[in-house]
Amino acid sequence: MKQLNVGLVGYKFMGKAHSNAYRSVPLFFPDLPAMPVMKAICGRDQVGVEQAAAQFGWESTETDFGALIARDDIDIIDIGTPNNVHCEQVIQAAEAGKQIACEKPIGMTVAEARGMVDAVTKAGVKHTVWFNYRRVPAVALIKQMIDEGKLGQIYHFRGTYLQDWIVDPDFPLVWRLRDEIAGSGAHGDLAAHLIDLARYLVGEFDEVVGMDKTFIKERPLELEATGLSGTASSQKGEVTVDDAMLFLTHFKNGAVGSFEATRFATGRKNYNRIEINGSKGSLAWCFEDMNQVQFFSKEDDARHQGFRTILATESDHPYVGAYWPPGHIIGYEHTFINQVRDFVTAVANDTEIAPDMVDGLRCQEVLEAVTTSCRERSWIKIPG
Ligand SMILES: NC(=O)c1ccc[n+]([C@@H]2O[C@H](COP(=O)([O-])OP(=O)(O)OC[C@H]3O[C@@H](n4cnc5c(N)ncnc54)[C@H](O)[C@@H]3O)[C@@H](O)[C@H]2O)c1
Fold first, then answer.
1. pTM surpassing 0.70?
2. Count of CB atoms within 10 A of residue 327's CB?
């Protein structure tokens, strides 16, 4: 069988999620057209990257990204680093002719994102962005139902992405709270996923208006951190990103949308919830119950109308046939496995893959327009 050798950069939260996906994909999708091989993992710290390689199952390590992309035994470069290095890493990987999977948000600015799209287009490589919530079976089912016309004309998209991991003012100043590394706060981290889901399920944005808030302006500097946790030092530094972001949109197709992203929703852990209301019905989904879809249909007998719960675990629901018998639910990690399956298939068969770097750019345009709107306190048109 054909092999596709993967080189991954970044070995903490997303590094682990992506590693698990490459490891697990052949178990669940044995009919893959090519087998991903976990060839090399890259990080700046020799000891840390060697530990990660041993734990996750990578064949070799690199401590220099340039050395990773110079290797001719690597086909795919997977980027799981913080947002401020995505642009240079994607452009370098594209120039080296590698296929690319990049974490979201793809860059810090629209200008960066445009440069990334230009580079992958010029190089003619395949590219995908880890907007992995598209690959929750329940969300993919919602997409099918909308495309089948179950909602009729769409009026509303309502997205809330709520977490609470920094509500403690003594939580340290990790990279996600520093503008020069993250580019924005809850906005690029959480609203980026909502924006992608809104584009996927409803359509393109026309204009936006937003408001942001930073509740805690100073925090202890970090001693050590990974993903959404860290330890604090006794010195303090300034928080330079939003803690919460709210915005409204007009979509080009006439629908309207509201969005709320925050890390200060006490008690909410990964409450990524969407609701879509149309002329014939409504659909709702929340990640904290990720296998369930709520569906209301005006086409039901009026005496029986009400929201019904669909458990998206039947074998004919998207992706689900690869896993367990009905009712044996799946989790967060499966969204990454599903995306690896689709990306590897696209690379091996030279077929389309979405979301790609252009979707990443469209998301960045909305992110940046909302930020401009907050600054200028006015509606901002989305380019294009
Ligand atoms: N798709 C999702 O659901 C999802 C979830 C979490 C994070 N993310 C995204 O994934 C990316 C990484 O987030 P994370 O939570 O894994 O962060 P993390 O802090 O857990 O891990 C980041 C890794 O990148 C490494 N790194 C940092 N700067 C580097 C550099 N210049 N060169 C090489 N390595 C470098 C760190 O050492 C670490 O191994 C971010 O863009 C984030 O927005 C996406």
1. yes
2. 9
